């Protein structure tokens, strides 16, 4: 097992919280746009698997 460096700088909790809030806002904006987007005929049920730019299936994203 590798030891961690005790002198390593830890992430600033304020910055981490801000980043999480920004990501949440971006996801909400993308979800809002995808709700108003036209549905694909005979398409997959549920949310658009490519709504975040990558193909997502069962929580796993792939970029191809």
Task: Give me a quick take on this structure.
This protein is of the alpha+beta class. The protein has a two-stranded antiparallel sheet with strand order 1-2. The radius of gyration is 18 Å and the shape is elongated.
Walk me through the structure.
This protein has 64 residues and is of the alpha+beta class. The chain is built from one helix and two strands; from the N terminus they run αββ. β1 and β2 (60-62) form a beta hairpin. 0% of the residues are buried. Pfam families: DUF1674. Belongs to the SDHAF4 family.
Keywords, please?
64 residues; alpha+beta; elongated
Shape: elongated
For the CA atoms, what is the radius of gyration? 18 Å
Which percent range describes the beta-strand content?
A: 5-15%
| Oligomeric organization of the protein chains | single chain
* Helix/strand class: alpha+beta
Largest sheet: 2 strands, antiparallel
Pfam families: DUF1674 (PF07896)
Protein name: DUF1674 domain-containing protein
Biased composition (Basic and acidic residues): 1-57
InterPro entries: SDHF4
Write the SSE topology:
Blueprint: H1 13-36, E1 55-57, E2 60-62
């Amino acid at each position: 097992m590798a030891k961690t460096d005790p002198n390593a700088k830890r992430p600033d909790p304020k910055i981490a919280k801000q980043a999480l809030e920004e990501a949440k806002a971006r996801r909400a904006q993308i979800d809002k746009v995808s709700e108003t987007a036209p549905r694909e005929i005979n398409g997959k049920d549920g949310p658009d698997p490519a709504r975040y730019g990558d193909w997502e299936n069962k929580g796993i994203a792939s970029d191809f």
